[in-house]
Amino acid sequence: MNLKMTPKAVIFGGTFILAAIVFAVVYWPWAKRIQTPSDIHRSRTPAENAGRATYIANGCVYCHSQSVRYLDWGLGAERVAQAGDYVEDRPILLGSERTGPDLSQEGGEHPDDWHVAHFINPRFTRPHSIMPPLAFLGDKKISTLIAYVQGLGYKDADRRMERQRFWKEKAIEAYEAGPEANVKWLHGHVPEGWRKIPNPYPTTEAGLRRGRRIYQGFCIGCHGPVGDGMGPAQPHIYPPPLNFTILKGRGISGGILYYQIMNGITGTAMPYFKRELESEKIWDVGNYVAVYFIGETDANAEPRGIDASWEP
Amino acid sequence: MATTTNALPQIHRTARGFCITSAVWFVIGTLVGLTTAIEFIAPDLLGNISWLVLGRIRPVHTNIVIFGFVTAGLLSVSFYMVPSLLRTELYSEKLGMITVLLWNIAVAAAGITLAMGYTQGREYAELIWPLDLVVVLLFGLICFNLFMTVKQRKEPLLYVSVWYVLAAVILSAITYCIGNVIWVPGSGALAGMPDAIILWFYGHNVLGLLLTPLAVAVAYYVIPSASRTPLYSHTLSLVGFWSLLVMYSHIGTHHLLQTPAPTWLKVVSIVGSIGMIIPVMVVLINLWYTAKGKLGQIQADVGAKFVLAGSVIYLFTCIQGPAHSLPVVQRITHFSNWVVAHAHMGVLGFAGFIALGGMYYILPKITGKPIFSKSLAELQYWLVLIGMSGFMIGLTMSGLIQGHGWRSGETVYRLLPQLHHYNIFRGAMGVLIVSSALIFLYNIIRTIFFNPGGQASGVGKES
Fold first, then answer.
1. Most exposed of A88, A174, B128, B259 (fewest Cβ within 10 Å)?
2. Whole-angstrom Cα distance, residue B364 to residue B226?
3. Alpha carbon distance B134, B180 (integer Å)
4. What's the CATH code, domain A177-294?
């Protein structure tokens, strides 16, 4: 084969191939694009758009995807991404890495005050986080950024935000009524069955060690190293993180601790940990808090069923 | 022939200019990369310095290494190689020097604007519109200079390297305009899923139609030249060239397999990605058969050694690439550090190695003097080879932890402590890569400006 390669063959041949390809894989998908918004879609508010500009300017997209896949487990897995979710996004911010979590459904996951603490320094609320601190943005940009993040998930986010606001009001009311009323309110929202369950496992050295490790990785930012609610996030959060000491003698149980850690307290900065901590870790961290900070544990107390086979 | 050791030939100014450009930005680009690696380890170390925040300097790193270091390095070789292969001189060294100057201004402006937060937020297409125009103008200047050089050629036959260089510069100018949605100055984006499709069409072709053809062109020039053997097969050259244009340019959607992109487009991109094996293997067979039995000669020249290593890494990269495009593989690798490892192997390991090798190879020809220090060049070779390989292996492991962890229900947050040590390892490998860049810069500056050595084997003689 001795095909002659002239400059014309290279330039026009190459351009022709590229033109055909652009037509097929760029123009044609555009011409056939889906323009119908999805069922959860709504337009963004001016504040959300301003926050989105901040999100773009600071390169949040390099670590956070906004693209839930059918194989995902984490936040937003209940709602796999649809083309109609992105119809107004210019540019689209699907992301290519998950150094941080996917944010498609972040809206309403936490109340605004949690985000303030988290943006000022992510380790205030999430000790293992490697996200850069964003305090340099200043209050105004942080507040628009929060508006944007709280709108992620569109109408689903709006419903969650409504729930956050509703319970925040109740939580503040309870907090301001004093420790006695606050604890009563907190316990009152734990389903009765859970309230009566003692921690079914005995206190062990190993269990406390595990509990401490979980506490340091998940709880310390708000509740502080001695459990008095004076962690670094505290100044930014209202109602403030719970001082565990006030739980003593007020009807605390292993079941209540377990339920509150698993399910969180919507409206307050206390997130749910059911996605991140499995059963043993929740019992262990609950017992660590009970033993060290509350000074009162019901570990292995009656009523209990058949002891688990590993128990000493 | 120059008689004094410090007189540089008037010709090849453009090639020297791009060579220095590449060496300087190699240092800056990898230093910025190392900074990001440090921020992964210690996020509060440089906390609240707005222009050093991770999300801003990541695109500074990618844009500088792609355009400032690798592309400039490959252009340096191209500006020597194309006239030389056509038995003529560059059409205009003056225009070339203007291009070099403007190129540096553009790369610096890109770094500064991105660090200030002026970005279009589209991965690999971040630059704001005025800079997009400058980039297109630059590609235009390069096209013009090279086309005019082709026009005044004394050698009627076009060698395969020339095809690749011409195709790379003209097709990159076009894909740059399309991918940056240059007709929408404000956002530089389409709306919705078509924006992702056009973005990855472009993002993929930064490698496919810019770095790859330029690097392959340099390899096609250096390997036969260093082993003093004619190229193994003209037919394979043709197959490799045309199949690259057909296969590489349409498969960007394999970045979007897990998104709501059209299914037919995903199928096309997967099939094309597997088809990538053809242009890659054809080129490598052609190069390696040429080098067969001549490895001694290649090893003896540090430039050719870099180029050969780059060709081996090209094989690894392009075995990975088609494998990633399979949905079953991507379930684990997508969104993870595995992809970051792959990208570094492609840009630094393949195109970067060939750029470095090409520059070392032509350095005596464009300065009329031998390389200042061959042993420093050898040291640099091992530093960057170990640095790049270690980086790649560490991040691949880290990516597997992420991919398998997520797949079995761990959250991103829960896995962070497990990735910490790999991030430290990445930083350590980054130190080797930055050291290699510093040595390269020193060696280049000494070779060009302060070279005590004698004369190389004849500037301008070789063609």
1. A88
2. 13
3. 13
4. 1.10.760.10
